[in-house]
Design brief:
Elements: H1 3-12, E1 22-23, E2 31-36, E3 41-45, E4 51-63, H2 66-81, E5 93-109, E6 115-127
Parallel strand pairs: 1-2
Antiparallel strand pairs: 2-4, 3-4, 4-6, 5-6
Length: 132
Amino acid sequence: MDFMERLTERVNQINGLPVSCKMGYLGAEESFVVYPLPGSNVTQEFMNGDTDQQLNYEFAMKSKSQSRINQTLWVVQNELERLKELESENNSYEFEELVITNKPFINQADDQGWFVFLLDIQAKITVFKEEK
């Protein structure tokens, strides 16, 4: 399933995004990432093997500039709230909706001047059974 790839690609298409998003976890330097969170689940399974799923993801940004983080995450949050479709490239899922579960918030500040802010989302999609 290519949902996370399409989500990352869509975020990186936002005009004026100060830094591009990557899949994975925060690095040692400034970074903006998306990764899955625990708690995702299948909400319904169909006779043909397709499933409705709720998938939890988190966007995290690390920077020494709170204003850069703030600008990035609020732009992303505003764009994702308006997201009505996100097509799969390999027809592995059908997008239903995306819900912002936590607006951007500070998670960490260290004594070296780094700040980490988070933005949490939940995607509702139908995942199609893989053909063998």
